[in-house]
Amino acid sequence: MKIHQLSIDDALASVRSSSGGLSSSEAERRRREFGLNRVEKVAGEPAWWRLLKEFTRFFSVILWCAAGLAFLAEWFAPGQGTARIGYAIIAVILISGVFSFWQEYRIEQTLAALQKLLPQQVSALRDGAIVQLPAEQIVIGDIILLEAGNNVPADCRLIEGFGVRVNNATVTGESVSKALTIAPSEKDELVYSNNIFMAGTSVVSGQARALVFATGALTEFGRIAHLSQTREVVVSPLRRQLAYLSRLIAILAIGIGVAFLIVGPLIAIPFWLSFIFSIGIIIAMVPEGLLPTLTLALVLAAQRMAKRNVLIRHLTSVETLGSATVICTDKTGTLTENRMRVRELLLGDESHSIATVDGSAELALRHRDFFMCASLCHDVKNSGRHAPGALLGDPMEVALLEMARKTIAESPPSRRLDEISFDSDRMRHSVVHEMPEGPVLYCKGAPESVLALCDSILAGEQVRSLDGPTRARIVGAQDAMAERGLRVLALASKKLAATYRHDELERNLVFLGLVGLEDPPRAEVPGAIQKCREAGIKVIMVTGDHPRTATAIAREIGLVRSERPHVITGDQLRGLPAAGLQLALDEPEIIFARVGADQKMRIVEALINKKHIVAVTGDGVNDAPALKCAHIGIAMGIAGTDVAQQAADMVLMDDNFASIVNAVEEGRAVFQNIRRFLTYVLVHNVAELVPFLAFALFTIPLPLTPIQALSVDMVTDSLTALGLGVERPDPQNMQLPPRSQTEKLLNWSVASRAYLFLGLIEAAIAMAAYFYVLLGGGWSYGQSLAADDPLYLRATTACLSAIIVMQIVSVFLCRSSVRSVFSTGLFGNRLILWGVLLEIILAVVINYTPVGHWLLDTDPVPGELWLLLVAAGAGMLALEELRKWIARKFLRREPTRQID
User: Fold this and answer.
1) What pTM does this model have?
2) Cα(88)–Cα(97) distance, rounded to whole angstroms?
3) Which of 143, 277, 451, 815 could be cross-linked to 21 through a Cys-Cys bond (beta carbons 3.0 to 4.6 Å apart)?
């Protein structure tokens, strides 16, 4: 038998302890054997190693190769400026790597957050005396003393107590406090037994002595902590997409470079020139500015989300949430307001809403005993001088007391004489108070428990017999309240003689009425649920609450519409095989109730196995493993524990489900924006690649030097690309289904537009500008030019300037793949306008300042070239507008396709 199923004496014997606690020497021996009472951190990779790994990601490896080739080329041909290229590339690698490491550095914080939930000092019995000990010194077999407000330092068995109630929400997810008794439990599951304190929970009321039977990693708390530390983080869709894109670009760049290294000697090109060409290919084809621009775009998106009460902890989660297909959400505090309040009353045999009762002196007088019972039958305490007037205790009892205070202006003086505490078997709580008319028993509890003890009813001001039809009406009222998602309590009383027998207190009671309490849904939630439905996102409620309550709330917020949704309890889930759970998740409307920590994670894993992109909410310690297991974990900012927040990817600052939907909308916009600036970057990558191909294939002077190409990638297009990355969400985004997981960032549509259309146009204009200056200066085919020849410097400057001008045109074209530039506008995005201004300034600096000439080996271009480039830009605009017109005609035949 387990310890919660044993008698007190057997429980003490099972851990070789006694009611007087352990001796100091025995406690020290056990501490050496079992270790300190703390959650040890799972050994992981050291921080320095994880930092180094950031510099070996696939894109970084490609750039390291480019830097190596640059230094090698400098060694073969000193004075060509290739060393500067190498240093610049290394700077890009280092900056990106350090920034990524800083964003992802969070695992170490989880352990510290876990420890904050544990008390620092604990009262314990050692050598028969009460001593104060650090929580980590508690060992198995210790007897500890607990009272209201204490956190529990270890898993304990209650062996002595009065009015003990505990809040297990951080471990079990249940939103109501639970009464504990010293009697052995008949339940199989330890966490649901009625005589167990669990580490990390808190005592709501009463005083207790408890026997420690598990410490540190052996506790339920420790097991959950271990799961949250060892569970591997799911790779986000965005990271997978970037890995795919990196591999694709690398294969193309390396393939072309290797091919030329083989072919170069065959066409009489010196070997070191082949190296220069390889460097140019890598620089031209690898978008070095992509990762920094992507990171900055995600940062700005995260800042926008913060204004909508969503705090982003990990940047890639911005886009991941936008691709979510399922949201697993808790109920209490996320879908509801996380506060109990009275909604309906049955006073005697009369039904009333709370609105009709508030302030009604007539009802208060007629049903005085009902409101006195609500006012006195509780264990609520005032918070004291730090928060005068605030009430501490079970939220349900607080709600009853607040209702009573509103109705009864002033309670008569009374003194508690006796009490029969609540327990899960009796399902009721009784107190005896000394009233002016003598001792009175007040009782509240589950209707089926209290009603069975009643033989009369107070109807109006008359007490009459409680007959069968009246009982049936009361039961019917109870069922009606429960179906509306209310928690129903029955109230009863009994006048006692001056001398009474304790064992006869709860007999022949007078039924006073019923109370229906609710944790009301948030006002914004029904609309958010409807948005999810329109967006093709499935919402699944996963809660520790009762199935009936969960179903009623789900129906109220529009999450459930059918007559019989599929409800799975924690007990049922334990008996379901993995395949059975995956099949059950196909149900259109499904609710999970009374689930534990490992079960929540199991649900998430099953959804991931079904190829869903899963977002999951949580607030307690018990939710941390599921938050890490999901593609995106969402913690509560108000009610959430530090553990949940550290394990999550984002935090809801208002604990509101509607904020998740706002974040989904932003996330969907992020993917589209990434495609926009990816298209923009790839367009000028083609314009950079073509000059190197022309140099290799046609033996002409290199039209664009490697350092000039790098300046385009890292400087001139940075701000305009970032502007494309922060375009505002399209309202139509939330009326379309989630993006397919097989859809790539760089698909055929994006690649063909960037590489085969806009890129070729821009490349043609850049080469035309190059030859315009070169031929105008008297150059003839086959003639070689020195690297410092003024004509060569002007020609390469013309090529670079043409790319910059075409970038200005291209950024407006890339705001949409199908909508006309005249509908997207020119002034709707300030960041793009600032980027255009920056490009104009840089074009001037490159052409007309000594600093620009020294950095990039440039020389001023002829004035008439600018007029030709403006005309060429207008031609590029006209061709793209024609392509978009044709694309819009095609998309009208497929109305389900998204138009950005």
Assistant:
1) 0.64
2) 14
3) 143
d(CA 199, CA 206) in angstroms, rounded, equals 17
CA angle 372, 373, 374 (to 5 degrees): 90
**Beta strand ranges found along 118-254 (DSSP E):** 121-126, 129-134, 143-147, 155-167, 178-179, 196-197, 202-214
Helix (H) or strand (E) holding 207: strand 202-214
| CATH code for the domain of 457 | 3.40.1110.10
Strand, helix or coil at 896? coil
Which of the following is catalytic: 142, 155, 330, 349? 330
What CATH number should be reported for the domain holding residue 617? 3.40.50.1000
Query: Is 569 within the bounds of a domain?
Result: yes
Strands 121-126, 178-179: pairing kind: unpaired
Please say if the pLDDT value at position 839 is more than 80: yes
Name the 3-class secondary structure at 46. coil
Q: Is 554 helix (H, G, I), strand (E, B) or coil?
A: helix
Residue at a domain's end among 230, 263, 287: 230
Q: Which two tokens stand for residue 484?
A: 């509306």
Integer Cα distance of 254 and 275 in angstroms: 12
Both ends of the chain: CA-CA distance in Å?
A: 64
Q: Do 177 and 278 fall into the same domain? A: no
Q: Are residues 124 and 257 in the same domain?
A: no
Burial of 863 (0-12, 13-18, 19+ CB in 10 A): exposed
What is the DSSP track for 461-504?
Answer: TEEEE--HHHHHHHHHHHHHHHHTT-EEEEEEEEE--SS--GGG
Are the CB atoms for 857 and 81 separated by under 8 Å?
A: yes
Are residues 331 and 386 located together in one domain of the fold? no
Same domain, yes or no: 658 and 697: no
Model confidence at 149: pLDDT above 60: yes
- Mean pLDDT for 709-721 is 75
Phi, psi of 590, deg, nearest 5: -140, 140
pLDDT value of residue 892: 63
Mean pLDDT of 832-855: 92
Q: Tokens in use for 47? A: 């921080």
In three-state secondary structure terms, 219 is: coil
Q: Are residues 424 and 456 in the same domain?
A: yes
Q: How far is CA 158 from the centre of its chain?
A: 36
Number of domains composing the chain = 4
Residue 42 forms part of a structural domain: no
Residue with token string 């890598």: 282
Instruction: Considering only CA atoms, give the Rg of the chain.
Output: 36
DSSP H or E run through 24: helix 24-34
Kindly provide the residue ranges of all beta strands, DSSP E only, lying in 546-613, ordered along the sequence: 566-569, 590-593
Length of the chain, in residues: 900
The C-alpha atoms of residue 344 and residue 516 are separated, in whole angstroms, by 5
Q: Mean pLDDT check: name the lowest of 411-415, 662-666, 764-768.
A: 411-415
Q: How would you label 472-491 residue by residue, b for 16+ Cβ within 10 Å and e otherwise?
A: eebeebbeebbebbbbbbbb
Domain boundary among 230, 256, 274: 230
Count Cβ atoms below 10 Å from residue 229 Cβ, excluding itself: 21
CA distances from 451 to 379, 446, 447, 548 (A): 22, 8, 6, 21
Residues 511 and 435 grouped into a single domain: yes
Does 672 have pLDDT greater than 90?
Answer: no
Tell me, yes or no, whether 104 lies in a domain: no
Q: Is 205 exposed, middle or buried (0-12, 13-18, 19+ CB in 10 A)?
A: buried
DSSP at 734: G
Catalytic status, residue 379? no
In this structure, the answer to whether residues 302 and 323 fall within a common structural domain is: no
Dihedral, CA of residue 789, residue 791, residue 795 and residue 797, to nearest 10:
70
For the chain, how long is the longest CA-to-CA vector? 123
Same domain for 298 and 206, yes or no, is no
In a domain, 70, yes or no: yes
* Residues 759/685, Cβ–Cβ less than 8 Å: yes
Task: Give the range of the structural domain holding residue 543, as residue numbers without chain letter.
Answer: 319-338+522-662
What are the backbone angles phi and psi of residue 199, rounded to the nearest 5°?
-55, 140
